[in-house]
Amino acid sequence: MDNNDGNTASVKAKIMAHPHYHRLLAAYINCQKVGAPSEVVARLEEACASAAAMGPTGTSCIGEDPALDQFMEAYCEMLTKYEQELSKPLKEAMLFLQRVECQFKALTVSSPNSACGEANERNGSSEEEVDVNNNFIDPQAEDQELKGQLLRRYSGYLGSLKQEFMKKRKKGKLPKEARQQLLDWWSRHYKWPYPSESQKLALAESTGLDQKQINNWFINQRKRHWKPSEDMQFVVMDATHSHYYMDNVLDLCGHVFGNCLFSAESSSFVKGGAASLAYRRFSTSILTPGSSDGAFPSDLLSTKAVLTPERKIGLYQDLVIPVTNFHNEDKGLMVLAGDVFDVPIKKHIIHRVVRWQLAKRQQGTHSTKTISEVSGTGRKPYQQKGTGRARHGTLRGPQFRGGATMHGPKPRSHAIKCNKKVRRLGLKIALTARAAEGKLLVFEDLEVPTHKTKNIVNYVNQMENTKKLLLVDGGLINEKLKLATQNLHYVNVLPSIGLNVYSILLHDTLVMSRDAINRIVERMHTPINR
């Protein structure tokens, strides 16, 4: 660092000792004076005069250092040209103002003459003015001409100014990398996007933003893209109370014995970071359609449901149902998200989604030929008059056999608009309806030991009131299951990505694997791309 400072000081001393230094200083001050206020111009002139009065600061002469001589001459010429370029717009503006002033003076001088001759020029144009030489001037034409000249000459400069203004306007936008990090955090915590203070500090460190920017970004993001579930009732537990935590863990690991109540607490959204945990309570009270006092599907669950939530204030409540397989073996329990499997039933939403789905799947390849497309001659079949028959100019008309079709169908899309939110809500309602009817079964997996069709037939025959069965697996369909069901018209198999409202309504019973339910819930919780 000391060597660099010493080199810089020596170079400065050489420049100040050069004979062209005062010329260089004068050119630089002239550039600074362009467009500056009068007070600043006066100070600059005083500084230039004081520097000139000091005289040369060294004994250097031209020719000792040719490189420095060339640099000083080139720099002086560059500053002189730069000063000329800077002063050119000001000179043109002054010239324009002088022209305007001359026009105003001409108008004021010619106003008495025009007043005296008003009676003689009563039929003339009221927009025309008279100058000193008694020539008519159209001010609007003058303005248009001047505007065109200014635009032609300074269009590039105005464009660069506009770009600078747009850049300054965009300064309020967060950097792309920082915004991407915030969006990644949002996608991981979309269920409860309220970062704690420690998380905000970590985000501020990683993104380079201050905490105020982090807070404002999350506030705007929640307003635009997140709607909290109004049904969330949290039992917040402090992590410092270890005995309370262990009691809840033991409750979570309990078992069902006869008709005794089973208490389960499933971990849900965490509010306030790692210092607190949130739980929801469930009980094994079995509901019947007659005992329901609410308007939600989970209040109308059949006796096939093992666990139903204690509904108090909230809207959606998670459901807990048993897990089995094709051999009716007990594989435990599974919690179904209430905001997917326990939403209010709305028939008009189902109607809209089914109508959209059926219209969307139409190929729309129907086509008929118009009079210009149908095959046939363009010759007039017979003369216009004298035959006693109707007049015809072509045999390809719609009134002839093999002729054209008027206003017939053409290939087109039959799709109608249906918002993504409505489609997603329709799938939730269809799943809710099957769960409320007791027609939703959860299997550990859809693995079958053999590809024989009789195994699936025997299983369907054991089920009550089932005419059509839909099997939904998480990923790719098992080859054995595909072979076992392909000859059964009343059994269909779909992957979770292909699950739709129409297929659910078309089948009496819906059988889903654990993996399929997890994928469906994840799909329902993924933010919608706008």
From TrEMBL:
Residues 365-413 are annotated as: Disordered. Keywords: DNA-binding, Homeobox, Nucleus, Ribonucleoprotein, Ribosomal protein. The keyword Ribonucleoprotein applies. It is found in: Nucleus. PROSITE patterns: ELK, HOMEOBOX_1, HOMEOBOX_2. Pfam families: ELK, Homeobox_KN, KNOX1, KNOX2, Ribosomal_L4. Its main location: nucleus. Residues 365-375 have a biased composition (Polar residues). It comes from the Eukaryota. This is Large ribosomal subunit protein uL4m. It comes from Hevea brasiliensis (Para rubber tree).
